[in-house]
Design goal:
The complex is a heterodimer of chains A (about 290) and B (about 230).
Chain A lengths: L1 H6 L4 H4 L4 H15 L7 H16 L3 H18 L5 H12 L1 H11 L5 E2 L8 H13 L2 E3 L4 E4 L1 H11 L2 H18 L4 H12 L3 H10 L61 H16 L1
Antiparallel strand pairs in A: 1-3, 2-3
Chain B lengths: L5 E14 L4 H4 L4 H10 L4 E5 L5 E10 L5 E9 L3 E7 L2 H18 L12 E13 L9 H12 L14 E10 L2 E11 L9 E6 L3 H13 L8
Antiparallel strand pairs in B: 1-5, 1-6, 2-3, 3-4, 4-5, 6-9, 7-8, 8-9
The chains are: A mainly alpha (about 290), B alpha+beta (about 230).
């Protein structure tokens, strides 16, 4: 168990057999080191609390009183709003990081792995994985493979990659698209808000200090009515005055053709397709 | 062996996510096709959509099957433009898993991104209803009840319809708290279970807490004022 190895304590099943003085000394040491654990390790505290409670149920006298004290302070540390599956998945990643990264790194992209791979795992790792199957976090398929429950994929992704880096990547992606599409401030704020799950006001405030610089092609777009909905394709007027063979547009900014973003597998769509999906959304909200 | 003061007979937990703004995924089941697909996914008995100013959709009496060994019975899955809520037979950690599952299914049905529910600005809110058996009762926590019962017994004995020692009591503490700009009114409730016999110590309890905190609250009340156990 991670916390046992971290804190170098005997397994909980032996704590009830210690004398009161020995137990007091161990629990003080335990509390001092537990403070150093990250607040994100609620899953670790949760399991510690379960084991302290189990030991307390079998204890009596001074040993019981000490374990109840330990239970009281663990109760606060172990408090979480996580589900059973979430806790078990977090614990798996905390305890067996390398194996978890190797396994979950493939499963988060909706891939399957052969069940046979699990049978080669060490018993303690296998026990964790069996628990994940029992809770439904991992699912056995009829073809002899297993996958990760879709509702757990986002959490697994969070656990494998620090949130700050994911958020940075999302912000960068949204800015690049907004920039490449030449969106004006209000539209850029609307687009960023929809992509980043923030309010428009927050996005506008962010852009006021770090604006998206416009990106213009040589071809000047046909000016449209500012009050009409944008995101329609435009007629490109070449400097010579000849029209291009692009589809006729009604209004809106130019939408240049740009290469798909390559650094993120999830965004294989072109900016035009992304914006058309935003159109449907903006029309829906404005209606 | 340590004796727990509170034994849980039955518990229903509710987990809700209140969004900061209108959420398209939470609104999706107002579409009949999405609602039907969701009901089918959870083997639900029926779907109800209530319109008006506070439009709500509800999928009732379903089951969430996580694995062969884990099935969670769902009293209701419901939602509105601003909220997604599930009520299950079980603890709050089961309710939270089901909430994630409903969110994920709605994402599949609406072709949305596979993002965590909690990545959307909002607040997670819990509630618990539990039927519990309490060996010592709650008298020690509420000593005034003894006084009330004594007055009822002595001053109103002839007119009492119910036996004095079988009087029902209800303790309710209403609270109002803010959830993302909305004010929610809930209550902490402890009352003798209506169907319990006189000698039973069975109570109906409710609170706007998650189930772990709810049970800890009851245990704290039970030991309040109780004489210390001999060791």
């Amino acid at each position: 168990m991670l916390w046992c190895s971290l804190l170098r304590l005997e397994p909980m099943r032996n704590l009830a057999e210690l004398s009161v003085d020995e137990l007091a000394e161990r629990l003080v040491e335990f509390a001092q080191r537990a403070r150093k654990l990250s607040g994100e390790d609620a899953s670790v505290f949760h399991e510690m609390l379960t084991e302290v409670r189990t030991a307390a149920d079998a204890a009596s006298g001074g040993v019981l009183l000490l374990l109840e004290v330990a239970e009281a302070f663990l109760r606060t540390l172990a408090h979480s709003d996580l589900g059973k599956g979430e806790l078990a998945l977090r614990r798996f990643v905390v305890d067996h990081q390398e194996i978890a990264e190797s396994m979950l790194g493939q499963l988060v992209d909706a891939r399957h792995l052969p069940v046979g791979d699990i049978e080669t795992l060490e018993p303690n790792v296998r026990a964790r994985v069996d628990l994940l199957f029992e809770l439904g976090v991992l699912r056995r398929k009829v073809d002899g493979n297993f996958d990760l429950r879709p509702s757990m994929r986002a959490l697994a992704r969070d656990l494998l990659e620090p949130e700050v880096l994911r958020m940075w990547r999302r912000v960068q992606k949204a800015r690049v698209v907004a920039q490449a599409s030449g969106l004006k401030e209000n539209l850029a704020a609307h687009y960023l808000a929809s992509q980043l799950a923030v309010t428009e006001q927050q996005a506008r405030s962010f852009l006021s200090t770090d604006p998206v610089s416009s990106f213009r092609l040589n071809d000047a777009p046909v000016e449209g009515r500012a009050d009409q909905l944008p995101f329609h394709r435009v007629v490109y007027v070449r400097p010579s005055g000849m029209q291009s063979d692009q589809p006729k547009a009604r209004n809106g900014p130019s939408i240049p053709v740009v290469a798909p973003l390559e650094h993120d597998q999830q965004s294989r769509e072109t900016p035009g397709k992304l914006l058309s999906s935003i159109l449907a959304q903006s029309q829906e909200t404005l209606n | 062996m340590r004796k727990r003061p509170v034994e849980v007979v039955r518990v229903q937990a509710t987990a809700s996510y209140v969004f900061a703004a209108d959420n398209a995924r939470a609104r999706a089941p107002f579409d009949q096709q999405v609602a039907s697909a969701l009901a089918k996914e959870f083997s639900a008995a029926d779907v109800v959509v209530q319109g008006g100013d506070h439009a709500v959709w509800m999928v009732r009496q379903g089951t969430c099957r996580f694995s062969e060994k884990r099935r969670v019975e769902c009293g209701s899955l419901m939602g509105s433009a601003h909220e997604l809520s599930v009520s299950v037979e079980g603890l709050s950690d089961d309710a939270k898993d089901v909430l994630n599952e409903v969110w994920s299914k709605l994402g599949e049905l609406t072709d949305a991104d596979s993002e965590n529910l909690t990545e959307y600005p909002g607040e997670l809110v819990f509630a618990t209803v539990a039927i519990v058996s309490v060996s010592g009762g709650f008298r020690s926590a509420f000593p005034g009840l003894e006084v009330l019962q004594e007055y009822a017994r002595t001053k109103m004995a002839k007119t009492l319809v119910q036996r004095a020692d079988a009087l029902q009591f209800r303790i309710e503490l209403p609270v109002e708290f803010a959830v993302r700009g909305l004010n929610a009114r809930r209550s902490f409730v402890i009352e003798r279970r209506f169907t319990a016999l006189t000698e039973d110590r069975v109570y109906f309890t409710a609170s706007p807490l998650n189930s772990t905190d709810h049970i800890e609250l009851l245990e704290s009340l039970c030991v309040l004022g109780a004489p210390p156990e001999k060791t």
